[in-house]
Structures are given as structure tokens and as C-alpha cells.
Amino acid sequence: MRKWWPLVAVCLGAFILLVDVTIVNVALPQMADALDAPFSSLQWVVDAYALSLAALLLAAGSIADLYGHRKLYVSGLALFALASLACGLATDAGVLVAARAVQGAGGAAMFATSAALLGATYHGRDRGTAFGIWGAVNGAAAATGPILGGLLTEHIGWQAIFLVNLPVAAVAILLTLRVVRADRTARHQARTGRVDVPGAVTFTLAAAAVTYGLIRSTEAGWTSPTVMITFAVAAASLIAFVLVETRLGRRGGQPMLDLALLRRPSFAGLMGGALLLQGGAFGCLVLVSLWLQSVLGLGPVEGGLALTPMAVVSFLVAAIAGRHIQRLAPRLPIGVGLLLIAAGMYLLYDAMSADATASSLVIGLAVGGAGVGLATPVLVSAATGSVPPQRMGMAAGAVNTFRQLGMTLAIAVLGAVFTHTAQKRLSGLVPDAHDAASALAGGQAQRLIAAAPHGNQAEARELIHRVFADGMQDVFLCAAAAAAVGGLLVLALVRPTPTPSAPGASGSAGPAKEPAATEEPATAGRP
Which regions span the lipid bilayer (predicted)? Predict the structure, then answer.
């Protein structure tokens, strides 16, 4: 039993890291009321975490290689716990968003080191067992997040969804220091290696500026000077990132992302697929949660239960089909999975109406979850199998970076789509369509209804239901289109390559097979 304690330490960190993605969605309406926060702030509560996680993953992997995976994992846990405390104590939206960004930085350190710690600790059959359990915990975390979030929010308060991380993180830190061995070669590597700080800074600035511009456009309009300047900053930062990474690669350094890999059709297709998978499957869930609670009037627990079909089905599909799909060329499960996500989003589009209920979502979420469960387990092994062996670690980090970036951008884009549609439908029907649309997107549907004259509240309720449904239909249609494009992209570009298996992988490479996904097995339920 003693040999499995390191696995317990890593799984505890993975659980709180991934629960904190899905647990927040259910609490957003309560946060909006308690902090008097507009929809843009609600978007940033989710986006700040995902953006920080995406932007720092590759840099965190480099730091771990230089200074030790155990050291960075423990540091990430400590930072995550402190940021969780700040989230729970936040009294305004700005503090909460800033704390969520710091939380994402801690999560990046944990995420970048978990697989390496397991790979260094376990060997042979034990390694496969350890990764299997780790993957199951990841899926279970995503599946239980909405329910746990609903219970804590309804019976204690939204602050509890963050404060619950503190005892778990404390146990994980103590256990890691006691049972996980420190890296032996980290000291030598720290003397000889360097972290790509300019690459990390320019990438983070570009991603943050794009996200901010998209969110700000819903309030100020696309032609606003602030929005245009923000997009200009994003473009300049992206150009600077390309120049920095290219120059560093030519000088024989270690860039955060080797841009030459994007010239490989398979690798480029997989990165595009990862971006669109995450955005297509999970970008709409913030708005779905607001619809369930602010329009239908469900409580946090009921709202959490309504969101579980996707996570539960994705976990079951990954667990049941995981071993079998590793034998296929990766473009098939990933491409077909993305097309299933597109089908699920289209079913949600078709089911959404002014009279829709929570049960109307079940089939669409379940079909989308099946696609997530089919595509996610092989993403990392497919990416590492499409590059030279010395670039496998970078490829694995790039997949997770693009996935988190996909969700960040999707939340901003789909929020803009919803607000635009709502404003268009409300135009001419209310005195200020823009403010009404923003309030609707901010989870204030009941306030809008209550503000109507007493004799007109029934008509106001019907209008709100119809407008929100129209906005959600456009959101689901955009998500379906994104996932469909991703699926076609993967099917067209990704090809099996005769690359040798990664260390620790169990599959053999060849024209009909892809290395097994030991870095990220059965993690399909997580956003």
C-alpha cells in the first residue's frame, strides 16, 4: 500500500485543480448577486483562471525541468491554496478575478508536473495502473464539480467552493514532501538551462489582450478606441512572440514553443483540434448555467445536476473505450469525437426554445460528452507521436495550452454572440436594449422581470425566456460550427507517423497505430 501514496498525493492536487474549473459555473449567479458584478466580470472569473493556466503551462514545464518537478508541484499547491483563500475572502469582482489568475498560475505548476511525477515514480505495470487511476480521478473531478459546487453554494455560500481547497491542498503538500522523491538531476539542469521569459511574457500578453478585447467589445462596441487599441496590442504581442521564439530557436536555445513544429500538418491539425474541442464543448457552459438558474429559477444543486450528463458520459466513454481507441490512427477518435461534439451542440440548438426546460439539455449534453470522451484521451499521445522524440515534452505541453486557450477565447466569443443577439431581439421593446442585454447576460433575468410594471410581468417573463433562448441558439450554433471545423481539420491534416513510442508509452508506432496516451489517459471529463 505504501507504494501508492505518491499517487494519492498527485491525485489530490489534480482533483482540486480540475474541480475548480467546473465548480465555478454553478456559483456564477450567486457571485453576480453578492458582488454586484456585470457579465464581463463573470466571464473573467472563469477566463482569468483558464487564461493564466494556458499561458503559463509551457513556462511551468520548463521551470520544472530546470529546478525539479516535486519542488514546483509543492509550490503550485501552496500558491493555489493561498489564491483560493483570497478568492473566498474577495469582496468585489476585481479582487476575485485577480485571485483567480493567481490560482491559474498555481494550477499551471501542478498541471505541468503531475504526469512527470507519476512517470518518475512508477514503472512497468504499476505505471499503467497509476496513470489509469489518475485519469479516472480527473474525470471524476469534472463530473462531480457541478454537484459539489451546487451543494456548497446552496447550503454554505459561493465562498465555500474556494475555501474547500485549503485542507485538501494542505494534505497534498504534506504527503508530497513525505512520500514523493525529489528530482536528482534538477540542480545540474538549473545551472545550465534558462526559462524562456520573453516568450512567456509576449504569449501571455497576446492571449490576455485578445480575450479582453472580445469581452470589452460586448460593452463598448467593436469600433471603440479601447477595443481597437487592445486588438492592436494583441497583434503586436503575437508578432513579438513569433520573433522571439524564432530567434531563440535559431540560436540553439530552448523556446517555449518551437514554431517549426506548426509546419508539420499533423501537429498543426492537432493543435487546431485541441483549441476547437475545448471551445466547442465547454465554452457555452457559463451561459447554460446562467440560463438554468436565472431564467428557469433552478437552485445551484439542480443547476449542477443538469450539467452533469456531459461530464458523466465523457468519463464513461473514456473509461470503456480508452484502451480500444489507442489502437486506431489518432485522427479517427479525435476527428469523430469533434464531430460528435458538433452534433451535441446542434441538438442543444434544436432543443432550445422559450419553453425549454433542464431536461431538454440531456441528449445534447450526453452526445457532446461522448465526443469529448472519445477525443480527449488520445490528444497528448497523438501530439507527441507527430513530432521528433526530443520535442515530445513540448508537444504535450502545447496541447494542454491550446486546450485552455480554446476555452478562454470561446467564453469571450460566445458571450459576445449572446449579448449581440439579445440586444438585437430587445431593440425597440425596452428603453435601453444594450443595458437590458448586459443584465440578462449577467444573470439578472429575474431583476428585469421584477422591474416591469406589475400588470406586464407575465409578458416580460415571456420576453426574457424568448430572448435568452434565441441568444442560446446562436451560441450553440457557433459552438457546433467550431467543433465541426475542428473535426474536419483533424481528419484532413492528421496522419499516422512511424515515430517511436514515447518513454513510458505502451503502444508501438507505425502506419496504423499511435503511441499510447500515458501522459493523459481518460481525462475526458475535464474542461
Answer: 42-60, 72-91, 97-119, 131-152, 158-177, 197-215, 227-246, 267-292, 304-321, 328-349, 361-384, 475-494
